[in-house]
Structure formats: structure tokens, C-alpha cells
Amino acid sequence: MKLISLYIENFGKLSRWSLDLSGGLNTVCEENGWGKSTLAAFIKAMFYGLPKNAKRDLDENERKKYAPWQGGNYGGYLVFECTHGKFRVERSFGETDVYALTDLSTGLPSSAFSETLGQELFGVDADGFERSVYFSARSLAPSGKNDTVRAKLTGVLDDVNDMGNFEKAYALLENRAKDYKKTGNRGKIGELEAEIRELKEQAREKRGLFVGQKSKEQELAAVRSELAAANAEAERVRVFAERIDEKKRREDAIRSLEAQRAAIGQAFVGEIPSAEELAQRQACLRAIALDNAELRRIGLNEAEQNELVALSAAFSSGAPEAETLENQHMLAAELRAKRTLLAESRARLDRERQEDAARLRELPSEAELREARAVLEPAAAAAPVTARTRLLPIAALLFSLFGAAALVFGVWKSVLPLIVCGGAGLIAGLVCLAIDRFAGSKPDRNAKPADDRPVRDLLARCGKPVSENADLVAALVGLSEESEQVRARMAEQEKRAAGLAAEETELRACENDLRAYLARYGIAGSDPETGLRRLSESARDWNRLVAKQREAARAGAEKRAALSANLAEIDRFFARYPACLSEADPERRMQLLAGAVARHTALKEQIERNRAELASFIAEKGLAENPQTPLPDLAVLQADADRIKERQAALSERETALSIELDRATRETEKIPELEESIERLSDELTDAKDRYRLLRLTCEYLKGAQEALTTRYLAGTRESFGKYLNLLAGEAAPQADVNAEFGVTVLDGGMSRQPESYSRGWRDILQFCVRLSLVDALFKDGETPFLLLDDPFTNLDEKRLVSAKELLGRLASQFQVLYLVCHADRT
Amino acid sequence: MKLIHCADVHLDSPMNSRFSAEVAKKRRAELLETFCRIIEFASAEGACAILIAGDLFDSPAYVRKHTKTIVREAVAKHPELQFFYLAGNHDGGTDLYGETDPQPENFHTFGSRWKTYRLGDVAVTASERPNAETLALDPADINIVMMHGNAVETANAAKKDDIPIRAYAGKGIDYIALGHYHSRSSASVDGRCRACYCGCPEGRGFDECGEKGFLLLETTPDRRVEQRFVPFARRTLHEVAVDITGCDGQEDVMRRAKDAVAGISGDDMVKLTVKGAVDPAFSPEYDWIAEKLNDRFYCAELKSETTLLIRPEDYRNDISLKGEFIRRVMNAELPQADKDRVIRNGLRALWGEEIDL
């Protein structure tokens, strides 16, 4: 290929600068700082673009490094020619990079190459480009660590990704292998091995526990057997001690009973009453109790005594006779009847008086009657009226009522004067009735006045309305008679009122007499009949109590005599047993005595029974003592029991410890299956991991081998070119040097391999320059021939080598288009 | 008369396969449960005895107290059954009954010499160290002999645990109840006698696949002993292979896997071995398939034994790194499985995909 021209709009310090190039050698000789490296970078940028990155170091960030100093559009264009034709590539760099490729034969945009123009043209990436066709004094070493260069070298242009991905693939496999194994026995294999070791150790320990388990089980069996024997011995000692203790307890009990019995015997001073004697005395006591109860029963009780005292105060001179009281009762009843009659008479009189007074006020006065008679004069003169005859029926009624009442009361109370008065009253009533029947006369009702209206009004006002044809005179006479009758009744009522007042006075005097009678016995305030009833009751009570008191005095004297005899007998009996005299009450004494006798008898029986049981117990339990085999002392047995107990405690402790150990061991050994499974599982995993690791290493090994095999394909040609260029540059002075697959140079000097760093800068540049040229030969022996971009690579050469270099440059220009950038004319 | 012949229960045994701890624990519980169910079965069937031909326990070192208690309770619960327990090589030193738990009358053990127990006209004879020369039986009896070891078709024992069954010919034996092998098998000893392994009642790993159970023995009126296998395992273990050659996707592989395990009960345990040739560019997600199988079965395991579908001539002239790599691996002296895995993962690395190792 060939560069034809370029134009830099703005790129670093270069601005609006253009260059036309010819085939062969093109020299740009400018002083230092002109921008030769910028020009080289521009050419590379036209083919590869300027990738964006965030690095601050300008050497690592070309986009930033070559940003236009003066601003403006960042970019330019380049015209080139290749086997595909003649093209112009334009690029500008900004927020959005612009790429355009124009086919200059048609003037139309071309799609012959994409934005990765450089890679498509040269078969290497930007880095590979810089390391091959770009020769700079700054870095001539080509370095083989570029996959695209390798890919290019190995001729795998069509599958650049394949070779290009070797390093990533290798790293991927390496990293995966490191997951399994790392330095310091780390990684999954190491972890699994450690885990398996740990589990195996646990399993070994647990199996060890099982081995120890057997001996411990035997020891546990022995301990349990010994413990059982000790328990049996302890039980034997305990039972024996209990029996001895029981025997002693029983003997002590018998002794205690005997002591109690002896004490009771001492209290009786050698004489103990027989059961019959006790029964007799108890009967005597019961008789005393009965007498005492009888004495208490026959006397006045406290309430009665209090009542008698109270009544005696009222009846200090004796209680009233029953007959007297009866008379007083009758008198009081009579007074009550009289008072009733009196009250009725008074009420009746008051009512009559009121009625008559009212009637009198209704009736016309004498003057009014005279006026009325004057109106009716003719008639009035002819018909006199006798009002007197109207009084007789009333008198007959009154006499009859009085007589009947007196007669009934007299008969009821058997009072003769009342019966006589009653009979007289009835006879008087009959006489008055007969007189009224036969001696009365009728007025003339045929007289009639001329104007009788006033008379009629008067009659109507007096409640005596008359008909038209009525006899007005007779009516007036009737009014007149009625008026007289009313007045007569009122006078008679006054008389009756006086009589009733006298009766009242007499009645009150009688009642006062009765009250005075009651007051003598301390009864006051109430009505006489009630007072008399109270007096009668008190008198009856007083008489009953007095009689009872007298009867009690008589019976008490008899009972006391009998009681004295019994008490004397029982006192004599108790005097024989001073022990019971501590009690004052004979009953308590007798109970004490009877209890003591019963206890004395019971103790005797109990002692006999206990002795029999003790003998049986001794015989049954083999506790009979004899001089040859005395029974052991309880203290000795206790000492034995303590010793056995200590032994039991020690054995129990050991048994518990062994049981715990065995349980623990069992629990641990029970985990062995899980452990075995885990070990098995982890061992499988380990085998698998090791196998995977082995396969990963194999994969790495074979992949690397494949990569190296491909790499060494170009080595022979590279070595040949390197020797040719070295000979051209150094001639006979050239050292014996060789290039390896990694583009490293080794110099054989004095029988030893030396690195280029052992030589001067000039020789080093020569060696590396030759390597780069041989690399270009190897890279581009087929396909597109690239241009060479030499950025003052001979600055370190001496004059002789510079001459050789210029000659070589001429030769190269016949093979490649060379753009030689130099700052010194001497090196052109 | 009916008798149960069982053996190799291996109570409290660690599981042989890579079961999870939880599954292993449950399986141990199921071993115990199955043994108790055998006893219940014997009782319900009207059997009069259970012959345990060794390895009731897996190891005296880790048999659990709880397990012993359950076994003792099961024995005590069925006084109508006679238990004849011959200790196997795994049982040695396991004390089912001890000082605090005296051996019941219906539980019979054997020592290093021949010992015979009678059940009517059946004589049960066994020894922990069987020696044909010292065995003397009454041919008039129905003779059942229990032994635990490695039965060989010879007349002499080459190893300590060998049982030379030919040496027992003509001894008047009607049935030899064997224990030690976990798969059932039988062999004729002489015209009268058959020697049978009943196998283990439950598989403990995928090395013990297939039907498991015990043998139900029954004496006939003509004084023979007939045996019938009774499948009795709580779960059956299956090992199934599936060829995924030609599969070009995950669903395709899953479909073939499902087809392969179709018909297997969900209560069972399955190990699926994936075989066949797979294109290097296709990497089946075996973990995903295993997860799906675990949802379907009580327990499932997946193992890949696939090979890569690579034709060396395709890479003979390939000058790429991939071609060079494959050529070198294919030419290497490695097992084919290793080659497949190296190539698969080398390519995955080159493609920037996750490494399957």
C-alpha cells in the first residue's frame, strides 16, 4: 500500500498542515519540537482512530495528548492506495467521532473498510501497528506480547480471534485451575484434603472411643456388680440394725408401761378400788347429782324470784281477795255500759237539738204567722188547731225505747232496779200512744182565703207547699203547732241535758273510786277495766309464787337431808385416795379415779401383750441373746452402715462417670456412619477436583503447546531476515545474535549468552531495528505491503553505523514506502 | 411351616453412594423400618421363625442404642416368632442384648461351633465358623443350615470367609441360608439341598440396584423346603443409561432422559448415566437435568460418560490455534474421556465461555 497525501486540520500542535507523499523514501526533516511524533501519531490515528479512555497520563491517553492546542476541529484526512483501490479516510474526534471513507475512483463513500480500517488493512491492531511498522527511537523493541501480531505472524488472519484469545483463554484456564490449587496448599483441593484429614481424625478418635468403650463396659459391669453387693450388704446391716432397734424400742416401751403402772399404783397407796366399789360410788355420785338437780328444779328460778320480789313490793299488805276483784270488775263493766249509754244519749240529744234549732229557724215567727192569719182571717177563725196532740207519739216512742233498753240491760246484768224501770218505761209508752189515738181532733180544711199568695209563699218557704185547693188555714195551724212543738222539744232537751250532766258527774266519781283502788296496788294511768285485769293477773302470779316458794322450802329440806348423807359417804370414799383430791369436783374426782383404775388395768394387759410380742419378735428375727453370740451394738452397726455407704457412694460415682463416658462415647460413635459418608463424599469430591485440576493443567499445557507450535512457524524466516539486516547494518562487526519466538534477542559473546542490555545504546538500537525489520518481513510477506514510519530511529548510531543505516534505508525504500521523520540533516 | 430367610440388613450403615446427608440419614431409618416390617410380615404370614444369616448390623463401632432398642422391642413384641441370628463379619462384637437387657427366649444365637435348634421337625443349625467336616445332622430332620460368607463352587475353602458348598453335599441338608452377598442367587448343593443368598432387603447405594427383599421358606408335606423371593424394599435403586448422541439442545437431552426413566416409581432412587457422542460446541447442562430428576424421584444422580463428536480429519489442515490444539490433544496418549474433556474445555476457554471443570 502507499500513502498519497494527508491533511491535518488540527492535531496536537499541528494545524491546517498538509503533506504529499511519493513512493519510496519520504523524508520530513524538522527540528526538535516541530511535531514529528505528532505527525506519526496522526497517521496511526487515521488508520486506527483514537480510542477514548480516562487515563490521566498523557503517554497512555493519546486522545488527550494530541488534542488541538489551538482548538478547532480535531482531526484531518489521509489519502492512501491499496490493492482495493484509492481511498480517502477522514476522521474527526470529539463528543462523537466521525469516520468517513471515500473511494476516490468513484468519489462516493466506500464500505470497503470499516472503522477498524488499520486492523483490516494490516491485520494487526493499533498496538501491533505501533510495534511493527512504526519505528521510533523511543521504543524499538517490538515485544511479542501482542496477540494480533502473533496471529498475523502465524498466518491465522482469518481467525484472528482464535489466536488473539489465547491469552484470555489461558488466563481463564489458569484461574479456574487456581480455584482448585493455589500456592500454600490453598484452593479447593487443599481445603478438601484438610477437611478429609479432619474428618478422618474425628472418625479415628471415635473408633478409638469404641475400643475404649469395651473395657469401660466391662468395668461398668464390675462396678455395678460390686455396687449391687454393697447395696445388699447395706440392706442387710440396715435391716439388722432396724431389728435391734425395734427390739430395744419394744423393751423400752414395756419398761415405760411398767413405770406408768407403778406410778398409778403409788397414787392408790397400795389399795385399788374394785370395779364393784367404783360402781357403787358412781351410783352414789349420780344420786347426789340427781338430788342437786332436784333441789335446783323445786325452788324458784331467778326470774320467778325477781317477779316475787317485785310483786311483794306491790302486795306488801297482801293481795286483794278474788271476790273483791270480781266485784270491782263488775262495777267497772257497769260503769263502762253507763258511759256508753250516756254518750249515746248525749249524742242523740245533740242531734235533736241541732235538728230542732234548724227547724225552728225555718218556721215562721209569731209575727209572720199573725200576718198570714190576717190574710186568711175567715178561715183561720173557723179552724183552730191543737198542736199539743202531736207530742203524744213522740213521748210514746221515747218511753218505749228507754223501757226496752233498761229491761234488756237489767236482765243481762241481773240488776233488779233496772228491770223495774224498763217495765215502767214500756207501760208509759203504751199509755201515751193510746191517748194520742183516741183524744186527737182534725182541723177544717174547707176554708179558702181571697188572696192567699203570701200564705202560700210562706208555706213553701217552710217546706210545706200546698196545692191550689189545699186548706191554707190548716196549713198555717200546722206551722204554728209545729213551731210550738219544736219549742217544747227544745225545752225538754234542756232538761235532759241537765240530767245527763248529773249522770256524768256520778259516773266520773265511781271511776275515780276505782282508780284510787288500783293505785293502792301501784296501777295507774290506764282505764279501770284494764287496770283491774292487770291487778288480777299480778295477784294470781303473786299467789302462785308464794305457794311455790312454800312448797320448795318443804321439799328442799327433805332433799338436802338425803344429799348430806350421800356427800358424807362419797367424801369418806375419796378420802381413801388422796391422789384424786386434787380435783374439787366429786365427779371429776370419780373420773380421775375411774380413769386411773382403768389405765392401771389396761397397762397391765398392755405390758403382758407387749412382752408376748417381744418374745415372738426375738424368736422370729433370731435376736435371742446368749453369752456366745451377743448382739452387736447399734453404734457398731451404724459404723458398718457408714462404711458401706461410703463405698456405695464411691461406686455410684464411678458408675455415673462410666455411664456418662459410655453415653458420650456411644453418641460419638453413632456419628461414625455420617462421618464415613462425609469422608466418602469428600474423597469423591477430592478425586473429582484433582481430576478436574489435572485436566485443567492438561488443557493449559496443550493449549500453550498449540500456541507455541504456531508461533515457531515464523521463527525460521524471522531469524533469516534478522541475520540479513544485522549484516547490512553492522557488517563484519556484527555480533553473533539470534532472535527467539518472543522477539527477544540473545547475543553470543565470549561463549556466553548475553541480553542486549549488556551492550551500548547504539548496538541495542541496531539489534532492535533489525528485529523490527525482520518482524515486518514476517508479518507482511503476504498480502498488503505496508509503509514504514521511521521516527528518527538512528539518533544513537555512530557515524559508521549511520552510513550503513542510510544505505539500508535506501534499500528499504525500494521495497516499502518509507516516511522518515528526522530532526537533523546529518541523518538524512 | 413357614420361615423367613433374610440377611445383610446392615443397620446403621453408611450409605455407599454420594447421597446427601439428609437422604443417607433417611435411608438408615428406612433400613431399620424395613427390618421391623419383615418381622411384622412374618407374623402376619404365620411364619414361625426368622433366619438372619449375618450382618444384621453394619459395625459394632457405631450401631446406635436407639437401633438396638427398636430391634429388641420388635423381637419382644412377637414372642410367637423364633429369631435365629447368625453373626456375620460386620456384626462381630455387637451386643444386642446385655446385662440390663437379657436375651429373650425367642431369640437364638450361635457360636463358633455348630449349634442346632429344633422347631418341630425342622432343625436350624448354624455356626459363625462353619466347618463341613464337623457338621453332623440327622437326615430324618428337615435340616436348614445358616452360614455367612463367600460361597464357592468348590469342596475346599481357599480363603477364610469362603464357604465351599460342595463340601456340604450329602450332609442331609435341605436348605442352606446364606448371607454376605447383597444380590440374591442360588445354587444346587446336591439332589436334596439348595444354597441361597437372599440378598439385602434394601439397597444402600447404586452398587446395589434392583429388586431387594427376602426369601420366604415353606416346608412341604414331602419334607422339602420351597423358597419364594418376596420383594420388600421400601425403595428400589435403578441405574439407567441414556444415549444423547445427536441431541442438539438441552430440551432434547432432557426429553431423552425422561424417556429413559419413564415407568420408574417416584419413590425410587435413580442414577442416570448419560452416554453418547456430543458435538464440542454443545455442552449439556447436567446439573439442571439432575435437579429435574431429583424433583421427580426420591433421589437422583447423574453421571456423564459422553464423548466428543470430533473427526480428526476435520482439523488436519486447520492452521488455527483451535485446530492445532485439537490435533495435539487427539495425538496425545491420554484416555479418550480425558481427551474429550480437555478439548471441550480448551475450546470453551478460547470462546470465552465458562469452564466446565
Strand order of the largest sheet of chain B: 4-3-2-1-13-14
The low-confidence runs of chain A, each spanning 5 or more residues with pLDDT under 50, are 155-161, 382-387, 441-445
Q: Quick check: average pLDDT of chain A? A: 84
Kindly give the count of domains of chain B: 3
Radius of gyration of chain A: 85 Å
Shape of chain B: elongated
Roughly how many Å is the radius of gyration of chain B? Answer: 26 Å
Query: Main beta sheet of chain B: strand number and arrangement?
Result: 6 strands, mixed
- What is the SS-derived class of chain B? alpha/beta
Helix content of chain A: 55-70%
Low-confidence stretches of chain B: none
CATH topology of the largest domain in chain B: Purple Acid Phosphatase, chain A, domain 2
Kindly report the oligomeric state of this protein: heterodimer
In whole angstroms, how far apart are the ends of chain A? 23 Å
Beta-strand proportion of chain B: 25-35%
Residues in helices of chain B, as a percent range: 10-25%
Tally of helical runs of chain B: 6
- Largest sheet entry of chain A: 6 strands, antiparallel
| Highest CATH level, the class of the largest domain in chain B | Alpha Beta
Strand count of chain B: 17
Pick out its properties:
heterodimer, A: 828 residues, alpha+beta, Rossmann fold, 66% helix, B: alpha/beta, Purple Acid Phosphatase, chain A, domain 2, 3 domains, six-stranded mixed sheet, 24% helix
Topology:
The complex is a heterodimer of chains A (828) and B (357).
Chain A: E1 2-11, E2 14-20, E3 25-29, H1 36-48, H2 62-65, E4 75-82, E5 85-92, E6 98-103, E7 108-109, H3 117-122, H4 126-132, E8 134-136, H5 147-153, H6 160-164, H7 166-180, H8 187-267, H9 275-298, H10 302-314, H11 322-362, H12 366-375, H13 377-382, H14 391-413, H15 416-439, H16 453-461, H17 472-519, H18 528-575, H19 586-621, H20 634-669, H21 672-711, H22 715-730, E9 736-739, E10 745-749, E11 752-754, H23 761-779, E12 787-791, H24 799-815, E13 817-822
Parallel strand pairs in A: 3-13, 8-12, 12-13
Antiparallel strand pairs in A: 1-2, 1-4, 4-5, 5-6, 6-7, 9-10, 10-11
Helix pairs in contact in A: 7-21, 8-19, 8-20, 8-21, 9-18, 9-19, 10-18, 11-17, 11-18, 12-17, 14-15, 17-18, 22-23, 22-24
Chain B: E1 2-6, H1 21-45, E2 49-52, H2 65-77, E3 82-85, E4 107-109, E5 115-119, E6 122-126, E7 142-148, E8 150-152, E9 162-164, E10 175-179, E11 185-188, E12 194-197, E13 213-219, E14 225-231, E15 237-243, H3 250-261, E16 269-278, H4 286-296, E17 299-308, H5 321-331, H6 336-350
Parallel strand pairs in B: 1-2, 2-3, 3-4, 6-7, 7-10, 8-9, 10-12, 15-16, 16-17
Antiparallel strand pairs in B: 1-13, 5-6, 11-12, 13-14
Helix pairs in contact in B: 1-2, 5-6
